[in-house]
Structures are given as structure tokens and as C-alpha cells.
Specification:
It comes from Cettia cetti. The chain has 197 residues and is mainly α. It is built from 7 helices and 2 strands. The radius of gyration is 43 Å and the shape is elongated. The termini are far apart.
Length: 197
């Protein structure tokens, strides 16, 4: 199969208009050879002599086709618009590749592995999410409580502001001792020549 795959690889990229008649015949002969190899029925005597779990002859042929890249070429021939003339040959080869498998087994096998992988991925994601939530909770507990910069507003009774109202003081109570009416105002600049020596 390795030599067949190499010949097909060399011929398949060519445009169908550039192919010689010999190239077309060679492609058809290679596809028929692969079909005939896969069409050989299994020998029950040889299958019984093998160890349980050992790959059958058919499985080993399929593995050789896979290693040689023939399965990729078959997919290309089946899907390429310009290679429609080989569609029946490719369809027959594919049906022979899956001849020992029932559709129910193939569907269940695909769902079983996908379901198991999906379940495993879901469990792994859930454990990661739980770990992340635990880390977030631990960080929130370690963080000191945030102190507000707003110290509150206080009314100073007995100290009048403009308009006969009580003064509203916006600083913390610890700053109350240093309160003056000039608090927060920009100090008046004294010109340099008038400053005290």
C-alpha cells in the first residue's frame, strides 16, 4: 500500500485535463488493487490461532493503509469535485474498510468515547471551578476591610458660618482641634519685599 499511495499522491494533484490516459488507468488500477486487497475474506483458521486481542489481518491492512496515507487520499478523492469519476470505487473501498463493523457498534463506540471524554472534561472543569472559588474566598478573607476615606460630616453647634447657620465640618473628629475658619483656603501670599526679615 505504501507504493500505491505514493503513486496516487504524485498523480492526484494534477489537473484532470493535464493527465494522460495512462495516468487515469494507473489511478483506476491502484484503486481496484486496494479494493481487491480489502475484499479478501478472513480465514477462520488463522483468526483462531491468533492470541485474543491480537489485530486481525483486515485490521493490519487498514493500519498499513493509514500509515501510508492512503486513507487521506481516499478522503480527497471522495470530496474533490473534479475527481467524481472515482466516487464509486472510493465508496466501495470505504464500505470494505468497515465490513466487519455494524453501524450500531460504530455509533455506540463514537458516543461512548465522546461521552466518556465529555464527562471527564466536565468533572475536571467543575473541580477547577471549585478550586478557583475556594481561592477567591480565601483571598477575600485575608484582605483587610477597606477603610472609607469619608470621615463623616459634623455640625459644630455654637460656631456660626456665613448666614447664621452652624458650621458643617467635613473632616474626621481627630482634626477638630485644629479647626479654623481658614481651613481649606489658600493662604494669602505676602510679596517678598514686604516679608519680615
Amino acid at each position: 500500500p505504501g507504493g500505491c499511495g505514493g503513486s496516487l499522491t504524485a498523480l492526484s494533484p494534477q489537473d484532470w485535463e493535464q493527465r494522460q490516459e495512462e495516468d487515469t488507468l494507473l489511478i483506476e488500477r491502484i484503486l481496484l488493487l486496494v479494493r481487491n486487497v480489502l475484499h479478501v475474506p478472513p480465514d477462520p483458521m488463522e483468526e483462531q490461532q491468533g492470541v485474543d486481542g491480537d489485530a486481525s489481518v483486515h485490521d493490519r491492512v487498514l493500519w498499513a493503509l493509514h500509515i501510508s496515507g492512503m486513507d487521506d487520499l481516499l478522503k480527497f478523492l471522495a470530496s474533490a469535485q473534479v475527481e467524481q469519476q472515482w466516487a464509486l470505487h472510493v465508496l466501495e473501498i470505504i464500505s470494505l474498510m468497515f465490513r466487519d463493523q455494524s453501524p450500531e457498534e460504530l455509533a455506540a463506540l463514537g458516543q461512548g468515547t465522546a461521552g466518556a471524554e465529555h464527562g471527564e472534561d466536565t468533572r475536571e472543569l467543575e473541580s477547577l471551578r471549585q478550586r478557583e472559588l475556594a481561592e477567591k474566598r480565601a483571598r477575600a478573607l485575608q484582605r483587610p476591610s477597606r477603610h472609607s476615606r469619608f470621615g463623616g460630616s459634623y455640625v459644630l453647634q455654637g460656631l456660626k458660618s456665613i448666614g447664621d447657620r452652624d458650621v458643617v465640618f467635613h473632616k474626621g473628629l481627630h482634626n477638630l482641634k485644629s479647626y479654623t475658619h481658614d481651613l481649606g483656603k489658600e493662604p494669602r501670599r505676602v510679596p517678598r519685599h514686604r516679608q519680615a526679615a
